[in-house]
Amino acid sequence: MTVYPYQDPARSIAERVDDLAGRMSLAEKIGQLTQYFYMGRDDTPVTEEMIASLPEELRDFARQPARVGAAIDAGRVGSLLFVTDPAMLRRLQERALAGSRWGIPLLFGFDVIHGLRTIFPVPIAAAASWDPEIVAASQRAAAREASAVGIRWTFAPMVDIARDPRWGRMVEGAGEDPCLGAAMAAAQVRGFQGGMSGTGEEAIGPESILAGPKHFAGYGAPAGGRDYEEVELSQSLLHNVYLPPFQAAIDAGAGNIMAAYMELDGVPAAANHHLLSHLLRDELGFDGFVVSDADAVNKLLIQHLVRTPAEAAARAVAAGLDMEMAQLGAAFEHLEDAVAQGLIDAAAIDAAARRVLTAKFRLGLFEQPFGAAPETAQAVLADPSHRRLARQAAERSLVLLKNDGALPLTASARRIAVLGDLAASKRDILGPWTFEKQVEESVSILEGIRARAGAGVTVEYARALATASRVQPSIFDRQEQTPLPTTPEGFDADAEMERAVALAAGADVAIVVVGQNQNMIGEAASTSTLSLPGRQEELIARVTATGTPTIVLVMSGRPLDIRAADDGAAAILQVWYPGTRGGAAVAAALFGDVSPAGRLPFTWPRHVGQVPMHYAHHTTFAPQDADRRYWNEQTGAPLYSFGHGLSYASFEYRDVQVPDRLAIGETGTARVTVTNTSDVDADEVVQLYLHQRYGSSTRPVRELKGFRRVHVPAGQTVTVDFPLGPQQLRYWSAATGTWVQEPTTIDVAVGGSSAVPFTAQFEVTA
C-alpha cells in the first residue's frame, strides 16, 4: 500500500497540507469548502411517496440527506453539522473516507454554545461570573462531551458586543463591554481547544474541539435591535468596542471564525473583503479558516449584491471566506463554473482549501476520524463531575440586584411560598441553544428550593400564571425533543392568581419567579419591549402588597423592566438561565450556602425607552444633564449600573495607588487593598476603570480596563494589582486613523461597579 507524505503524522502540518493539496483536483478542493446541514437519518429510507405526503415547504429538507449522502460518496463534502448520534456520525465518516480518493475525513460541527448534554449557564450568565477560569472549565467539559461523540468543531463563542437588549442574541455573548468580552472570549477558546497558543502547526488534542468565534463583525449592533438587519458602525466603534473580543479569541488560538449575516456599512459580511481580509487577516492576524453563517452566501442574492450563485460564490471566496455553510444547495457548488467564467482564480480556492485541510490535520482527524467508542461516549456524557461543575458555574453567575435584608433566608422562614410558572419549569431553566439536553435531568428552581429547605420547612407552590407565548413563533420550537411548557387545560388565570396571593399572605417569605421563557431570547428573538410577559408584574404587585417579605427571581438573558420589583420587593436575584443544576445553585444562594458574587455584564435600563444604553458613553456637550435628557422622566439613569452586584458580605476599598507618571510605552501598576468587613466569607469582583482627559479624540467617561474576582475571607484583607500599560492606555483614534497612546492625564477608579468614583490620577508623558 502506497503511503503518501500527507499520511505521515511525523511530518509537519504544512508539509502534509502541501502534499495533499498538490494531489487534489479543483472539484475536490471545492468539496472541502462546503458544509451541509444533515438534519435527517442515514439509516431510514425516504421514498418519493413519503416526500409527496409532506407539506411542500418540507419536501426539499426530506430529500436533503440523500442528496448530501451522494455528495459524500463522491468526495465533495468537507463538513457536516447537526449530526450528534455517534453511530450515525461514524457511518457518515466511513462513507466520506471511502468516497474520497485521498481518504479525507469530514469535520463535524455543532452548536455547542453552553454545553452538549450537561447544560451550563447561558453565555451572558457566564460573563456575569466575571470569572474566566470557571468559564474555561465549563467549555472544557463541553468539549469533552462533544468530542466523545465525534463533534470536533463548535460555532462558539459568540463574541459580539451587545448594547441593545432588544436584540435576542445578547444572551449568547458577554454583554456590552470589550474588556470583559475579550476576557470571556479568550477563556472560552482556551476551554474548547485546550489552551492552544494559536499557531497553525499546533495539534488540537482528541478531547478538544475547534472554536469558532462569531459573528465577524459588528453583528451585535443591528438597527433597532432587530436580528439580521443592517449595521452602521464608525471605525472608532468597530476598533475600540467590537473588534477587541475577536482579537482576544484569535490571540488565544481560535482556529475558525464565522462571518456574520448582515451588511456592515452596506456590504454583506460574507462577501466583505475589508472585513474578512483587511481587518481579520491583515490587522488581527488570523490565519485559520472562515466559515459563513447558515446560507449567508446564497443570501447574497436575496440581499441584492449579486445576480447568480456562481457570482455569490466567487465574491465570497475573493473576500476571504473559506467555507460555506448551506442548508440545502450550496452556492459553492457553482465555483467550478465561476472559475471557468473568470469570476475567481483557482489559486484563491486552493488557498481556502489549504486552510480547511490545516484545521483537519491540527485536529488529528486523519489519524483519528471517529469519536470515542459508544460506551465511552455515554460515560463522558454522564460524567457526574460535569454536573457538579455546572452547579458551581451557576452559583458564580448569580447577581444579587437588591437586598433589604431578606436574603439569605434564615431559620425563621418556616413556610415558603414559591410562585410563578417558571419556578417549576425544567425546560426554561436550561435556556436556548440546547439541542442535546435531557430535560428530565435538569433541576428546576422549585425542586432546588424543596431539596435544600429540608425537614421542618413547608414549601408551597402556585403556578399563578399562564405560560407566556410569542406573537411570532420561534424557529427553534420544532427542534425540541420534549414538549415545551404549556398552560394546563382548564387553567383559570384569575383563580390561580388569587391562590398565589393567598399562599403569599400566609407564608413567612414569598419567592416570585418572573422573566422570559427560553424561546423568547436567542436568535430570531428580538423584542420591541422589555416589559415582563403576561401578568407577571401584577403578580409582583399583588404579592408585595400582602406585606410578606418578597424575593423576586428574574430568569432572563436580557435586562427587563422590573421597576415594580425594585419598588416593592425585599430582594431581587438575577438567576439567568442557569443550566442543568440551576435550581440547586439558586437554592444555595437563597439559603446562604454561597454568597452571590456575580456582577452585571450590561447596564440595566429602567425601561425600553432608554435603549440602547451603556456606561462607557462620552462626556458630551452637557454632561451635567446626562440623567435629565428625557423631559418626561424623573431620571434617565439606569436602574442598575454595569458591574453592579451585591453580596452577603461587605467590602472596604482603601489605598488606591498609581504611579505619578508613566512614559508612553511604559507599564506601571494600580494597587488597591480590599477588606471584608463582615463575618461572611465571600468573593468580590474588583474592577478598574480609567478615563483619558484629553487627546486626539475624546474618550468615554470611563472604561473597564481590568478586573479580578477574588475570595476574601471574613475580616481579611487582600491586595489586588492591575497593569497600567499600552494595552490599557491605547485606543484607536479617528483623528489619526491608527492606534495611539498619547500624553494625557488618566483618572483612576477602583471598586465594585462602574458607579465607583475616581480617586486617583496619573500623567502619561511623551
Can you offer a commentary on this structure?
This protein is of the alpha/beta class and 766 residues long. The protein is 30% helix and 17% strand. The strands form 7 sheets. It has a 6-stranded parallel sheet. The chain is globular, with a radius of gyration of 27 Å.
Structural class: alpha/beta
Low-confidence stretches: none
Read across the widest sheet, the strand sequence of neighbours is: 5-4-3-2-1-10
Largest sheet: 6 strands, parallel
Q: Give the helix proportion (percent range).
A: 25-40%
Whole-angstrom Rg: 27 Å
Give the CA-based shape. Answer: globular
Relative strand content: 15-25%
Rounded to the nearest angstrom, the distance between the terminal CA atoms is 67 Å
Mean pLDDT metric: 96
Total helical segments: 23
The total beta strand count reads 26
Keywords:
about 775 residues; alpha/beta; 6-stranded parallel beta sheet; 6-stranded mixed beta sheet; 26 strands
Brief summary:
By secondary structure, this protein is an alpha/beta fold.
Question: SSE layout and pairings?
Answer:
Layout: H1 13-23, H2 26-32, E1 34-37, H3 48-52, H4 56-73, E2 79-81, H5 86-99, E3 107-110, H6 123-128, H7 132-149, E4 153-154, H8 178-193, E5 210-211, H9 235-242, H10 244-251, E6 256-258, E7 263-264, E8 267-268, H11 273-283, E9 289-291, H12 299-302, H13 309-319, E10 324-326, H14 335-340, H15 346-362, H16 374-381, H17 384-397, E11 399-403, E12 415-419, H18 445-453, E13 458-462, H19 493-505, E14 509-515, H20 536-544, E15 550-555, H21 563-568, E16 571-574, H22 582-590, E17 651-657, E18 661-663, E19 668-676, E20 682-692, E21 703-712, E22 717-724, H23 726-729, E23 731-733, E24 738-740, E25 744-751, E26 760-765
Parallel strand pairs: 1-2, 1-10, 2-3, 3-4, 4-5, 6-9, 12-13, 12-14, 14-15, 15-16, 18-26
Antiparallel strand pairs: 7-8, 11-16, 17-19, 19-22, 20-21, 20-25, 23-24, 25-26
Helix pairs in contact: 1-15, 2-15, 7-8, 7-16, 7-17, 8-10, 17-22, 18-22
